[in-house]
Amino acid sequence: MSDKLKVAVIGVGNIGTAVAANLVKGGRSVIVANKEIQKAKNLAEKLGDKVTPLAVADAIKAADIIVFAVYFNTIKELFDTHSTELQGKIIVDPSNPIAPDDKGGFKKIIGEKESAGEILSSILPEGAKFVKALGSLGAGSLATASFQQPENAVLFYATDDKALAAPIEDLIRDTGFEPIQIGGINQSIRMEVFGDLHEFGTLGKTVTASEAKSKI
Ligand SMILES: NC(=O)c1ccc[n+]([C@@H]2O[C@H](COP(=O)([O-])OP(=O)(O)OC[C@H]3O[C@@H](n4cnc5c(N)ncnc54)[C@H](OP(=O)(O)O)[C@@H]3O)[C@@H](O)[C@H]2O)c1
Questions:
Q1: Average pLDDT of the chain?
Q2: What pTM was computed for the model?
Q3: Where are the alpha helices (DSSP H) in 123-180?
Q4: Inside any domain, residue 2
Q5: For residue 93, what are the domain limits?
Q6: Maximum distance among all Cα pairs of the chain, rounded to whole angstroms
Q7: What is the C-alpha separation between 182 and 157, in angstroms, rounded?
């Protein structure tokens, strides 16, 4: 039996689908859940028997690591609805706190100096643990740069909990990327969209570990 922590991906849109597909490529089993459960079932059918579709509450109960691949405001709602099931779980937040503006682009929906990571970690369900991760690249690169040759691309992460480094680095490696911790949750803003360590911020592209070193 595998000694890997069990992972559930909540939300099977752009990011959730890429994360689940990458985990399957990395040989790791994954539970998927979605508001409309049929979408999770369709994804499981497409990706094969390493993927188990479950209802959101059941997925959270069954897994150790919960990746919230849904919008920032939805994560807040899900913290509320599933606060009991989330006790003791490792929560992974890839979210960018943005919404469409009226010029065809995106604008931040929180203060300029605020980050989704800091806000979500401040309203964490009791007993849950928190990592900002899996969101520093756009969904396109997340899908296409997984297990790239000759050197994996980097996914940054941030956490205040030293004990989470090992399980999160294992998770990121299993998705085909090289994990680099940028610091605690107060650094989240750097790896959220518009930040200097986000693909759609100053970073502008995927980077390898050696390219990333000078930027951190
Ligand atoms: N797209 C990117 O390039 C990118 C990059 C980095 C980070 N992110 C972040 O990743 C997160 C997901 O983005 P995305 O582009 O993957 O969004 P998306 O394609 O719109 O997917 C969101 C998914 O969440 C599901 N969902 C909505 N409410 C839910 C609920 N209450 N319970 C369970 N599932 C629910 C939706 O299901 P239904 O379709 O059934 O409503 C949909 O499948 C966001 O926070 C975003 O900021 C995105």
A1: 97
A2: 0.98
A3: 139-144, 165-174
A4: no
A5: 7-213
A6: 52
A7: 6
- Look at residue 128 and tell me if it is in a domain: yes
Pocket test for ligand 1, best of 17, 32, 35, 39 (most atoms within 8 A of CB): 35
Report yes or no on 151 lying in a domain: yes
Mean pLDDT check: name the lowest of 84-93, 102-111, 163-172: 102-111
Residue type (1 letter), 196 = D
Nearest Cα to Cα of residue 199 among 181, 183, 176, 215:
215
Determine, yes or no, domain membership for 1.
Answer: no
CATH code of the domain containing 160:
3.40.50.720
Mutate to test the pocket of ligand 1, among 9, 19, 34, 76 (most ligand atoms within 8 A of CB): 34
Write the pLDDT tens digit of every residue in 21-56: 999 999 999 999 999 999 999 999 999 999 999 999
Q: Determine the distance separating the centroid of ligand 1 and the alpha carbon of 14, expressed in angstroms.
A: 7
**Is 53 close to ligand 1, i.e. is its CB under 6 Å away?**
no
CA-derived radius of gyration, the chain? 16
Reply yes or no: is the peptide bond before residue 150 cis, omega within 30 of 0. yes
Residue nearest to atom 43 of ligand 1 (CA): 13
Distance 75 CA to ligand 1 centre (A): 10
The tens digit of pLDDT for each residue in 181-216 reads 999 999 999 999 999 999 999 999 999 999 998 888
